[in-house]
Design brief:
With 184 residues, this protein is α+β, with helices and mostly antiparallel strands. It contains 7 helices and 6 strands; from the N terminus they run αββαααββαββαα. Helix content is 36%, strand content 16%. The longest helix is centred in the first third of the chain and has 26 residues. It is elongated, with a radius of gyration of 26 Å.
Amino acid sequence: DLLQELKIIEKGEDGLFIPTQKNHLVSYLRNKRKFPKTNFEDINKKKSEIGKIGENLTMEYELNRLNENEDLRQQILQISEIDDTAGFDIMSFDGEKSTEFDRMIEVKATTDENPHFFFSGHEVEVASYLKNKYWIYLWTAVFGTPKLTKIKNPYENVFIKSKVKPEPASFYINKNLIENIEQS
């Protein structure tokens, strides 16, 4: 009765039917998402929190690793706090004989126990330039028992030497490409 009152269903000689002008409602109900709309703001907030945890774990790790050299420990710089375009998060030192920053660390962190991450085009470019000075510190299970996987020179080890190649997750389509698309 309610659907008839709202004129979503009408009664005809052959029984009930949906009027043509109401087909969009049926289509909407039939194709309605089974899950609520994705809240990207909350997702990004959570990712940012996880990233900060990873950076804090990395700072702690680096301070412990360079425990014997107080001078180097005091110079470790969390560059992500002042420059988010560097292509890495932390500037540190390889060891006791370092006289300048020679370990640029990109921090990746996940709550999952299975290692995975996204490596941006800019990060890849910086890694290709810095070579052995560039490291990825991947923290897994950051809300449980965090585990660290370190990747030195990821450009060479991931893109050049690895038998398994990374999968592109997105493509940058710029104005030049759009303007040069041949329309048929």
